[in-house]
From TrEMBL:
Belongs to the anti-sigma-factor antagonist family. NCBIfam families: ant_ant_sig. Pfam families: STAS (PF01740). PROSITE patterns: STAS. InterPro entries: Anti-sigma_ant, STAS_dom, STAS_dom_sf. Residues 4-117 form the STAS domain. This is Anti-sigma factor antagonist. It comes from the Bacteria. One of its GO terms (molecular function) is anti-sigma factor antagonist activity.
Length: 121
């Protein structure tokens, strides 16, 4: 499977990088390059790596994320992971890197669409 990456400018000077597909030995460099590209253009308030649509990540992909985190940190920019898929969340937890990326909760499809029911309502 291939990897596609969408970059979005969000309010407050935040750049969202959203990979879709598998991040592995063949595609990990794309994540690292995407982070470097954002930093080459300027200094965003924060970079959010939205991992909701990542279906697989291997050790090379995790390594690329860490390298991107370090590159951002050297530039004075905070890089966090948002909405990791359950697979990504598990890999970050197992490797002990979940806290490095902001300790995000895993993304559950439909979770945001479910209204909260209050007692007595």
């Amino acid at each position: 499977m291939s990897l596609s990456i969408l970059q979005t400018v969000r309010p407050g000077g935040v750049i969202e990088i959203a990979p879709r597909g598998e991040i592995d030995v063949d595609t990990a460099y794309e994540v690292k390059e995407s982070i470097a590209e954002v930093l080459a253009k300027g200094r965003p308030a924060r970079i959010e790596l939205n991992m909701r649509l990542v279906t697989f990540i291997d050790s090379v992909g995790i390594s690329a994320m860490v390298a991107g985190f370090q590159t951002a940190e050297v530039s004075g920019v905070k890089l966090v992971v948002t909405e990791p898929s359950r697979f990504v969340h598990r890999q970050l937890w197992v490797t002990g890197l979940l806290g490095l990326f902001g300790a995000p909760e895993p993304y559950y499809a439909g979770a945001a669409a479910t209204p909260e029911v209050l007692p007595g309502a």
